[in-house]
Design goal:
The chain has 4 helices and 5 strands, in the order H-H-H-H-E-E-E-E-E. By secondary structure, it is α+β, with helices and mostly antiparallel strands. A hairpin with a 2-residue loop joins strand 2 and strand 3. Helix 1 runs antiparallel to helix 2 and helix 2 (28-44) runs antiparallel to helix 3. It starts with 5 loop residues before the first helix and ends with a strand. It is found in: Membrane. This is NfeD family protein. Residues 86-142 form the NfeD-like C-terminal domain. It is a multi-pass membrane protein.
């Protein structure tokens, strides 16, 4: 250990913490690795061993205490911008071919879709506007 400077050991520690980060996808390992990088900086600038450990612990705990709650809050929020099929639900469409419980065609978001009525006894004639309530496969369910 005398042949290798302390800052190199801290860099090895940071790299070693990157391995479980990649394997487990737990962001806490990245925060610990950042603490090890900060300790490497202290060691490189001539700080003592106790100071290095304190910086490692302080930076790691601070990052976990500050970043983790923010990340959890963002993870549990629904996306503001819906895409794909979810973006089509609730939109209006124009009937191209009569739509009833067994099928038909509509123009939805500039594309022709197969469609069927939610209420099997109801029918919509060509030219009528309908609302898309769901998408099942490639078929729009309309009312």
């Amino acid at each position: 250990m005398n042949d290798i400077d302390a800052w190199v050991w801290w860099l090895v520690c940071a790299a070693a913490l990157g391995i479980p980060l990649v394997v487990t996808a737990m962001p806490e390992f990245a925060m610990l690795a950042a603490g090890a990088l900060a300790a490497a900086g202290v060691a490189g600038s001539g700080g003592g061993g106790i100071l290095q450990v304190l910086v490692f612990a302080g930076v790691s705990v601070a990052l976990i205490a500050v970043v983790r709650p923010i990340a959890n809050r963002h993870r549990h929020q629904r996306p503001q911008h819906v895409t794909g099929i979810d973006a089509l639900k609730g939109r209006q469409a124009v009937v191209l071919e009569r739509v009833d419980g067994s099928g038909g065609r509509i123009k939805l978001a500039g594309e022709v879709w197969s469609a069927r009525a939610l209420d099997g006894g109801r029918a919509y004639d060509a030219g009528q506007e309908v609302d898309v309530v769901d998408i099942e496969g490639a078929t729009a369910i309309v009312i």
